[in-house]
Amino acid sequence: MSIRIRLTLWYVSLLAIILITFSVAFYSVLQYSLTSEVDRSLQERANQVLVGIQALNTPSSIQRFGVIRLPELDVFSSRSIYIQIADESGNVVKRSPNLMGRDLPIDRQVLSAIAAQQPIIENVTVGSVEMRLYTAPLVSSGGAVFGFVQVGNPVGEIQATLRRVLLFLVSGATISLVLATLGGVWLVYLSLRPIERITETANQIVSAEDLKQRLPVPPTDDELARLSRTINRMLERLDNFFQAQVRLSADVSHELRTPLTIIRGNVDILRRMGDSPTTREEALNAIESALNRMARLVSDLLLLSQADAGMMLKMKPVDLDGVILDVFQQAHALRNGVELKLGHADPARVYGDEDRLKQLLINLMENAIKHTPKGGSVTLSVYRSENSVRISVADTGAGISSEHLPHIFDRFYRVKGQRVRGSGLGLAIAKWIAEAHHGTLTAESEPGLGSTFTLTLPLLKEDENNQRQKADLENPL
Ligand code: ADP
Predict the structure, then answer these.
(1) What is the per-residue pLDDT across 139-188, written as a single tens digit (0 to 9) for each?
(2) In what order do the strands lie in the sheet with 377-384?
């Protein structure tokens, strides 16, 4: 069942319940108040008759004449009020003229109520007329019942009024429900139309496989505008992800092509001129370096894909002195005529993955050495401040122009036309490692004068250190 139908049904059912409850309550209250109004006037009229009888009969007059005198009832009756007086056995002794010879009914209930000296009120039918009939006992001063007075009022008018009200309520409720249903359908249609438009556009995007398209965002700052914006952000991320995938496959195949060509070419040379030891040596060297390049590329790619998949680092408290020393020693093997200096070296302790931190710094050192001509220098320094530690790798090399600087951390980004070639993944990996340690990696450069790469990491505080060590002991894995 569609949301549209469900919402309308809910809305109409709710309205129906409200209307029915209101109508029933209104009808009952009206019926009760009209009936009790009639009952009150009947009682009043009966009391007047009783007072009239008392006025005509004093105890001495009854004794003197031996009969009870009754008032003329037409004084008390009116067009719609019928009165009758009967003795204690139920024999009618007087009736108002408007009864025109007919009797008001005296049933067993009336007689037993009178015997118990209780008034009684009931619904009766006289001829074809429905009446409300009140019967009150006539009690002598001695306390004996000597008869009763009955006052009746036809209820036809009240019933007609109630019927009219009922008709009005039923037809009013029905018309309201029909109108509400139509209005509800229209309102629900209006409010769900934007969702339909969003669905249509989303469908177009799916069928056209065009992740560049965006949903229209309604100008209202409501739930639908927020939904459209969220879907647009999702599309943006999907698009970026998709583009990155396409770029990655293109870059990887491009990167693999060069070493494969070198290997194939050298295998060819070996086949044709493999007898010459120098040629063989050169060809094997070329093949080895191409293989090394491929191996490096594959391991870098593997690392990045693991990083994308949310690889966990092996975090523990790490003293940076040891890391710096190790990196410095490894870099020595690569220095190639570049002077390596250890600058400012504050002791510092961080919470991190030692191997990854070494890898990050080696990448920076390797880059610095690669891009610094012989005779230049690369300086590795550690500065500790209150909450963080800065590790900088500064070289006196070629530098990076401002046009390339914002992109050097992108995957496969390389500055074209350089003497030394790399895969363009080193800085992307370094940045990922820095961020996985809640740190930052930034680059500053003066083309022609050199570049400085700065890694900033949060310092491990002593109490944090203790807590972490405790947690590591409890959960060795
Ligand atoms: P690669 O493996 O190709 O060196 P990186 O991601 O490490 O890739 O670096 C990307 C680009 O940044 C390189 O192509 C290089 O031009 C530039 N770069 C990195 N470090 C330096 C540096 N210290 N001096 C000058 N250029 C640098």
Answers:
(1) 877 788 888 999 999 998 899 999 999 999 999 999 999 998 899 889 88
(2) 339-345, 377-384, 388-395, 450-458, 440-446
Whether 450 is in the pocket of ligand 1, judged by its Cβ within 6 Å, is no
Of 107 and 454, more confident? 454
Q: For residue range 457-466, list pLDDT tens digits in order.
A: 999 976 666 6
The size of the chain, in residues, is 477
Structural domains present in the chain:
3-161 (3.30.450.20), 223-308 (1.10.287.130), 316-474 (3.30.565.10)
CB atoms within 10 A of CB 413: 15
Cα of 263 to ligand 1 centre, how many Å? 25
CA of 243 to the centre of ligand 1 (A): 23
Rounded CA-CA distance 290/269 in Å is: 15
Taking alpha carbons only, the member of 456, 317, 460, 459 closest to residue 390 is 456
Which pLDDT score is estimated for 334?
87
For residue 344, the surrounding DSSP H or E stretch is strand 339-345
CB 400 less than 6 A from any atom of ligand 1? yes
Atom in ligand 1 nearest the alpha carbon of residue 453:
23
Please tell me the pTM assigned to this model.
0.56
- For ligand 1, whether the C-beta of 352 sits within 6 Å is no
Cα of 453 from ligand 1 centre, angstroms = 11
Q: Given the CA of residue 418, which atom of ligand 1 is nearest to it?
A: 16
Burial environment of residue 332 by CB neighbours within 10 A (0 to 12, 13 to 18, 19 or more): exposed
Cα separation, 435 vs 399, whole angstroms: 24
Nearest ligand 1 atom to the CA of 414 is 14
Our answer on whether the CB atom of 427 is closer than 6 Å to any ligand 1 atom is: yes
How far away, in angstroms, is 212 Cα from ligand 1 center?
Answer: 31
pLDDT digits (tens, 9 = 90+) for 77-117: 777 889 999 988 888 888 888 888 888 999 899 999 998 99
138 lines ligand 1 (CB under 6 A): no
Tokens of 207: 């069928």
For ligand 1, the distance from its centroid to the CA atom of residue 272, given in whole angstroms, is 38
Strand ranges (DSSP E) for 166-286?
none
**C-beta 395 within 6 A of ligand 1:** yes
Confidence of residue 471 (pLDDT cuts 50, 70, 90): low
Residue from 25, 8, 3 nearest 173 by CA: 25
Contact call for residues 57 and 33 (beta carbons, < 8 A) = no
Q: Please tell me if the CB atom of residue 369 comes closer than 6 angstroms to any atom of ligand 1.
A: no
408 pLDDT more than 80: yes
